[in-house]
Amino acid sequence: REALAEAERRVATIATVHAALSQNVDETVDFDEVFASVLRGAAAVASAGGRVTTRLEGAFGVVEADAAQALATVLAELVTNAVEHGLQDHDGTVVVTAQRDDDELTVHVIDDGVGLEPGAAMTGLGTRIVSTLVHGELRGTIDWRPVSDPVREARGTDVVVRARLAPSA
């Protein structure tokens, strides 16, 4: 049942990008609009327990079709993982920040959850999908970092994706 739900979520992400592409003749999408839908869907499907707040800061801009598909899949996986593994049935927040400078895109997916276990193996299917897409399709890098805020006694994870996209129009 869980595997089918994950497959359904992945297909829904792909369908969201295809729907946006079907309304454009130039094979590009306003990724901010696409991602708003992807973000809602990923958090809703993943949050079985506590209440999760999601928010986007910054902007992605216009993205070509192939990169949009890969980027949507990567970000949906990262948000889902943040909710399922980072927040684990607790209330929390997932913040996605996007900074675009011509063809350079930097995205942070930050949760205020339990944080990374030291030496934790990152070998799940979602992690493999994300790594393959970031390195292959997006010509970029991905890095998982622990977040610690001793003032608020908060922990969490910051996943940083850097990608090279065609310059925005």
Tell me about this structure.
The chain contains four helices and seven strands, in the order H-E-H-E-E-H-E-E-H-E-E. The radius of gyration is 15 Å and the shape is globular. The mean pLDDT is 81. Strand 4 and strand 5 form a beta hairpin. By secondary structure, it is of the alpha+beta class. The chain has helices at 2-21, 31-46, 65-87, 125-137; strands spanning 28-30, 52-58, 62-64, 92-101, 104-111, 141-149, 154-164.
What is the distance, rounded to the nearest whole angstrom, between the alpha carbons of the first and last residues?
42 Å
CATH class: Alpha Beta
The appropriate CATH architecture is 2-Layer Sandwich
Number of E-type strands: 7
% residues in beta strands: 25-35%
Q: What is the fold named in CATH at topology level? A: Heat Shock Protein 90
Instruction: Name the quaternary structure.
Output: single chain
Low-pLDDT ranges:
none
Number of helices: 4
Helix content: 40-55%
Main-sheet strand order equals 2-4-5-7-6
Largest sheet: 5 strands, mixed
Shape category: globular
Order of helices and strands: HEHEEHEEHEE
CATH superfamily: Histidine kinase-like ATPase, C-terminal domain
How many structural domains can be distinguished in the coordinates? 1
State the secondary-structure class.
Answer: alpha+beta
- Rg over alpha carbons: 15 Å
Overall mean confidence score, pLDDT: 81
Task: Quickly list its features.
169 residues; alpha+beta; five-stranded mixed beta sheet; two-stranded antiparallel sheet; 43% helix; globular
